Amino acid sequence: MNLLILYESCTGNTELGAELIRRTLDKEGHRCTMLRYREIDPGGLEGYDLYCFATPVQSFAPLAATYRFIKNMPKLKGLPAFILTTGAGWPGVAHRMMAGALRRKGMAVIGARMLACPDNWPIGRTFDRRFYNRFTFPRRRSMRKTQDFAREMMNKAYRFRDGIKVKQTPHILWPTPTLPMGFFAVRGMLARGFGKRTVDADACTRCGICVETCPVGAVRLIDLPEFDSSCIGCWACFNNCPEKAILTNICKPETYYGGIEDPEKLLKKVGL
Question: How many domains does the chain have?
Answer without folding.
Answer: 2
